[in-house]
Design brief:
Elements (H helix, E strand, L loop, with lengths): L6 H13 L3 H14 L4 H8 L3 H19 L13 H13 L5 H12 L5 H10 L18 H13 L19
Helix pairs in contact: 1-2, 2-3, 2-4, 3-4
Length: 178
């Protein structure tokens, strides 16, 4: 076992990893600390709860690269099917040509980019980009029959206009729309 750090430096490295919330690195450094204390590889591994094969990998990683060798290296996972540029382009197309059915979106992606997405995954990706599925309806079926009259009356009251009959045909209304 190569001693890349002194005992105090190893303790500082553990403290730094804890502050940075790198729990995987903390566990690996504690394994090394057990080795520094004289434990055999298997015994040090038992103390931190790892298998014999993992003790070999961590010991090799420590010997070859020190603290940086023990730092977990995540490959980032599977690359996305669409690049960021392609997905932005897709979102622009969807926004311009609204409304879309889920089946039409899948067909568009397959024809234009040659890839397919699981429907649940695609809906998550679209929601994350700010798009939402909705059932298009010309009117809300829960609205009362005289909804326009009620709106005109309430709008007149809200704007402080006494005579609702004298209002403009298209009053100005402020609100948050998306």
């Amino acid at each position: 076992m190569i001693k890349h750090l002194s005992g105090d430096e190893l303790d500082r490295a553990i403290a730094d990893a804890q502050k940075a919330d790198e729990t995987s690195l903390v566990r690996r450094l504690c394994y090394v600390k057990n080795l520094y204390a004289g434990d055999a590889r298997e015994e040090a591994g038992d103390r931190v709860g790892i298998s014999r094969s993992t003790t070999r990998r961590w010991a090799r990683a420590w010997n070859e690269g020190g603290v940086e060798g023990l730092r977990p290296g995540f490959g980032g996972g599977r690359p996305p099917k669409l690049t960021n540029k392609q997905f932005a382009e897709l979102c622009d197309i969807l926004e311009e040509g609204q409304p879309w059915t889920p089946r039409a979106i899948h067909t568009l992606i397959e024809e234009r980019y040659g890839v397919t997405y699981d429907p649940a995954h695609l809906s998550r990706k679209l929601r994350a980009s700010g798009m939402h599925y909705a059932k298009p309806r010309p009117m809300d079926p829960r609205s009362p029959e005289n909804a326009e009259g009620i709106l005109a009356e309430r709008l007149g009251e809200a704007l402080g206009e006494k005579d609702v009959e004298e209002q403009e045909a298209d009053p100005v209304v402020l609100g948050f729309f998306r």
